[in-house]
Amino acid sequence: MLTGLAAVAxxxxxxxxxxxxxxxxxxxxxxxxxxxxxxxxxxxxxxRIARGRxxxxxxxxxxxxxxxxxxxxxxxxxxxILVTSAVEHExxxxxxxxxxxxxxxxxxxxLLLDGDLRHPNVHLALDIDLGVxxxxxxxxxxxxxxxxxxxxxxxxxxxxxxQCDYAAISALSRPDLPKLLxxxxxxxxxxxxxxxxxxxxxxxLLLGQNSDVALVATLKDVSRVPKVAAAIERLRSVGVRVQxxxxxxxxxxxxxxxxxxxxPS
Length: 265
What we know:
By secondary structure, the protein is an alpha/beta fold. About 40% of the residues lie in helices and about 15% in strands. The chain has eleven helices and eight strands. It has helices at about 1-25, 35-40, 55-70, 90-105, 120-125, 135-140, 145, 165-170, 175-185, 205-210, 225-235, and strands at about 40-45, 80-85, 110-115, 150, 155-160, 190-195, 215-220, 240-250. Strands 1-8-7-2-6-3-5-4 form an eight-stranded mixed sheet. Strand 4 and strand 5 (about 155-160) form a beta hairpin. Helix 3 (about 55-70) crosses helix 4. The chain is globular, with a radius of gyration of 20 Å.
């Protein structure tokens, strides 16, 4: 009987190990694995941020290297850059806000636009009032000048999400959206859009069609490879140029790693 119980216990433990291995294999476990498993280039990594510790220098260095790769990718430098993710809580707002700040530090007049109307976070990242913003602009209630807010970072301006409703969401699919974004394109050197998750709603696809490139944020050991791959395929299916991914939560996110990720063959 003891032998039988031991055999059953061994099966349970073995089965649990297999499940655990499959769980980990399903996750983005390193930046080096992304090109092989998903088929896109890793443009940058951002470090894991621990409470009570200062990471400004490391984050700045990583993001400035990301900015360099985004703007010097072999084609004309993109003016409107969409930052999105497959699902929620993968660090897209962190990537978008840090990238926009990096552009501003390089003496580029930059706008950070909160295109995640349903779950806005740009105002929290920049510590500004939600107020009126993109939703009101889409509904035609305010002008572009009224929507743009200054920030504490020189050269960086923001349009918050504002107060979202069905009318604002519906306006994303109307002909006025390209005109609105073209107005921002004409007024700023770069526009960074923090868009909603790709697999949740069509909002990011509509914004992506009016952007030059898209970056897909992932979170190490959290983002699921099939979902990231599905998000990239969905963006490409509507003509959005996916320039690459950014991996958040990397323990050693030194910029030298940004140049080690080859283009997928």
